[in-house]
Amino acid sequence: xxxxxxxxxxxxxxxxxxxxxxxxxxxxxxxxxxxxxxxxxxxxxxxxxxxxxxxxxxxxxxxxxxxxxxxxxxxxxxxxxxxxxxxxxxxxxxxxxxxxxxxxxxxxxxxxxxxxxx
Length: 118
Known about the structure:
This protein has one domain (3-115). By secondary structure, it is mainly alpha-helical. Strand 1 and strand 2 (107-111) form a beta hairpin. Helix content is 65%, strand content 6%. A two-stranded antiparallel sheet has the order 1-2. It contains six helices and two strands; from the N terminus they run H-H-H-H-H-E-E-H.
């Protein structure tokens, strides 16, 4: 299998894992569905130009911020941080599974997953 295939499989398993954990914890399904695509708001940077768009999009599609929320959930024991972390991570994993990766400034369709073909 190619690295791209492995990354897409990882995305699928990550999405399924985050979703199962979310529902296992008894968190609200409607909030999950309503918020799953919220990180796509980071695409608005493309209204400025592709360089700014790629930077802002990538901020919303790396695991740094869901991990920070997860740490806050552990430290504060507040479920809201855990719910946000799981939804955000599920979104990122879903994107990876579907073949959407981190963006390059050359354009929206040029991602780290597409660069694997080089």
